[in-house]
Amino acid sequence: MIILLVINLSFDFFPGGMERWIVEFSKALKKRRVDSYIVTPQKFDKFLFSVKGVDFVFLDYPVTDDPFLNIFSYSLEASKKCLRLINNEKDVTLVVHKFKDLPAACLVKKRIGVKIAYVLHNPPFGWLISPEGYKSYRRDFSRYVAEYYLWKRFIGYVDYFFSNSKWISSLYRKFEGIHATPLYAGSDHVEKILLNNVKNGNNNLSFDEPLILSVGSFEPRKRFDILLKALSSLKNEEYRCFIIGGRGDPTPYVQLSKKLKLEEKVRFYSRINERNLFNLYSNCCFYVHPANHEHLGIAVLEAMASGVPVIAQNNGGVIELVKHKYNGFCFGNDSVRELTEYMTMLLNDKNLCKTMGLNSKKLANRFRWDKVAETFLEIVYKSNC
User: 159 and 193 in one domain?
Assistant: First the structure.
């Protein structure tokens, strides 16, 4: 039995990369006839995300303004639900994705001796407080310290470490001495939804101008400001740009777009369902991922699976997906000039877009959810033998 503990699974807006990773991973496990459950607070909208074939165990606990008290309440409730769910089951592995999920998993482990697998999605503390990391993530230093203290307190209980990219694995090996196996993400869920859209006649979007697409939460590290500045530098180009967000406040970006006189060109959306998102992927001219030091970027993989070129920053885990001048372009750190240059090339060359799009699809086909599940189960079950 595999139980995924997720404290902040929320589909109130557009579901983020971690939410999509968790749901598709659970589906892949169930296809391999492994009992899989997602234990989480009930905070999502089925309109936005496909959750068929997933078993949820919902929690109900008092939410307060104190984040650490919330972790305490969540841990108690989640551990109780897990113990009931496990009952007398053997060979149970709890999967956590954030340090906030660790206390709940540790409570269960101390009680009945289950295994804990930790999937590392974010960079380690040592890198986050480095000049490079702090510039990219821009979070409160006192919060770093508090989170790291909790993390170190519970990390000794973890049996297996995984990550979502080689880049994340290398950072944990360097700063924490932890060896994590990359699991990446799959892309075949995109193919299924696009095929379903075609069957139901929902893939007939058309735009008078080439569409530029970018997806990510409205956080500073997603660097939509770089994209907007590059768009304002395009000379005499006809285009339309959709920025699909979710968590976070889009106001600063909306204000910047007005300042740059892009109101007629750029649209911001925070609530969009999975079907419509993948329609936009498959109908855009190219996809731009301006985020700085992104751990992987499942949106990049989804765009590739839809058969479009990708332009991304030349750092983080994204460069494991985007091969420069093959299925897209990698621009220098925060370089508006290079991003503008590459967008201009793709807008003016349809054949280049088509070729790079086909190459994107070829690369995306290497990343499949059954392979992700196979790698995970091979390591977990081998150690249990």
Answer: no
pLDDT value of position 192 = 73
Angular region, 113: left φ>0, alpha ψ -120 to 50, beta rest: left
When pLDDT is cut at 50, 70 and 90, the band that residue 152 belongs to is confident
Q: Residues 159, 192: one domain?
A: no
The answer to whether residues 74 and 51 belong to one domain is yes
Q: Which residue has the tokens 């804990």?
A: 116
Say if residues 154 and 102 touch (Cβ distance below 8 Å).
Answer: yes
Q: If you search the block for the tokens 């997603």, which residue do you land on?
A: 222
Neighbours of 118 (CB within 10 A): 26
Q: Which domain holds residue 311?
A: 188-364
| Domains held by the chain: number | 2
Bridge partners of residue 212, in order along the sequence: 241, 286
The tokens describing 233, both together, are 């530098």
Residue 90 has, within 13 A of its CA and on its CB side, a CA count of: 3
Question: Which of these, 229, 260, 224, lies nearest to 242 by C-alpha position?
Answer: 224
Residue 206 confidence (pLDDT): 60
* DSSP per-residue codes, 125-185: HHHHTSHHHHHHH---HHHHHHHHHHHHHHGGG--EEEESSHHHHHHHHHHT----EE---
Residue 64 has pLDDT above 50, yes or no: yes
Residues 247, 306, single domain; the answer is yes
Residues 151 and 251 reside in one and the same domain = no
Q: How far apart are CA 275 and CA 156, in angstroms?
A: 41
Give the number of other CB atoms < 10 A from CB of residue 163: 27
**CATH number for 302:** 3.40.50.2000
User: What is the C-alpha separation between 60 and 51, in angstroms, rounded?
Assistant: 20
Please identify which residue in the block is written with the tokens 């196996």.
Answer: 181
* Residue 338: predicted pLDDT: 95
Residue 105 scores a pLDDT above 80: yes
Task: With beta carbons less than 8 A apart as the criterion, state whether 38 and 59 touch.
Answer: no
| Total residues belonging to the chain | 385
| Residue 325 DSSP one-character state | T
In this prediction, what percent of the chain has a pLDDT beyond 70? 84
Task: State whether 126 and 156 are in the same domain.
Answer: yes
Read off the pTM. 0.87
Residues 305 and 192 both lie in one domain: yes
Average pLDDT, the chain: 84
Give yes or no: residues 125 and 221 share one domain. Answer: no
